[in-house]
Amino acid sequence: MINESKISVVMSVFNGEKYLGEAVDSILNQTFKDFEFIVINDGSTDGTREILESYNDSRIVLIHQENIGLTKSLNKGIALAKGEYIARQDADDISMPERLEKQIEFLENHKNIVLLGTAIKCIDINGVHLKTVKYPHDYTSIRKAINRFNCFYHGSVIFKRHCFLELGGYREFFIKSQDYDLWLRFVEKFEAANLSLPLYKYRFSRTSFAFNNLVSKKRMAKFARQLNNTRKSEVNKQSLIQDLKIFFKSPLSLAEKKDILQIYNHWAELLLVNNIKKEAFLLLDDSFENLPSYLYKFLFRIVKFTRSSFLLRMLIKLIKMFLILPTPSFYIYLV
Length: 335
Hints:
This protein is of the alpha/beta class. It has three domains: 4-203, Alpha-Beta Complex (Spore Coat Polysaccharide Biosynthesis Protein SpsA, Chain A); 211-249; 254-331. 49% of the residues lie in helices and 17% in strands. Helix 10 packs antiparallel against helix 11, helix 11 (277-290) runs antiparallel to helix 12 and helix 12 (294-306) runs antiparallel to helix 13 (309-323). The chain is globular and about 55 Å long.
C-alpha cells in the first residue's frame, strides 16, 4: 500500500480562476486518496487566491508568491515535495477520477519505468469532447518518436522525483516547452511509457492558443531537439541562453509558417466537426492576422461574411492542398 509520503501532485496557476475549481476538484476527488497536493499561486491578480483559500483539505499545501513563471514555479514545488513520485496537473485541465490510482499501480508493477504519461481527451472551453489523443506507449516506440515530437502530455505525467533531481529539473531558460526538454533528457537516461487509457482532459481554448505562444513553443521545442542531438546540454548555461536569444530573433521560415498554419487548420476543422462554429472562425481569424496571406485573407473574408461552415471547411481543404505542395516559390506568395 502506498502512503501519502510517496506521492506529491504539483500544480502552478497564474490567473486561472475560470477553470481552477474543476482542476482542483479533479485531484481532490481521485479514487486514490493519499497524497499531498502542492498548489502554487504564481502572483495571480484575479480571484485565484480566494478560490484556493476556500478549500479546507489537509492534503493541500498552498503557496502564494510573486510571479516567477511556470518553469521556476514547478522546480520550486518539486523541491518542496515529499513524494517519491511527482504527479503534474495543469490549472485549466481535469484529471479523471482513477488517474492517480491507475498510474501508480502501473509504476509499482513496472519498477523500470520512471516516467509515465497517459492518453488524453481534448475538450473545448465548455467541456465538449473534441478528440482523444494516444501517444506511443512503450519505451522502444517513445525512443524512436521523441526526437520528432513530444510523446507526453505535460499535465498527465507522473515521474520519480529522484530521477528528476538527478537530471537537474526543468531548465529555467525554457519558458515554453520546458516539459519537452525534460522528457528528451529523461528518455535518454531512463525508461518511460504511456498508458493507452485517456485519464486526463486537456482543455483547448483559442485564448491559450495565442499565436505568439504557439511560435515560442514550437521554436523552443526545436531548440530542445537541437540541444539533444548535439549533446550541448553540458555547456555553459549563459552560452545556451545566448544561442536561444539569437534563435528567437530570426524571422519565421517558410517551413515554420506552414507548420503553424497546419496546426491552426487542424483545430479549426476539429471545432467545425463538433459544431463549434464561432470558435473555429475566431481561430482562423487569429491565424490570418498573424500569418498574412493576401489570397487566403480575401477568401476568408468572403466565407466570414456568409458565416457558412461548409464554405469554411472548403477553405480549410484548399489551404491544406497548398500546404503540401513541394514548390516553395509558389507557396511564398500565399503566406
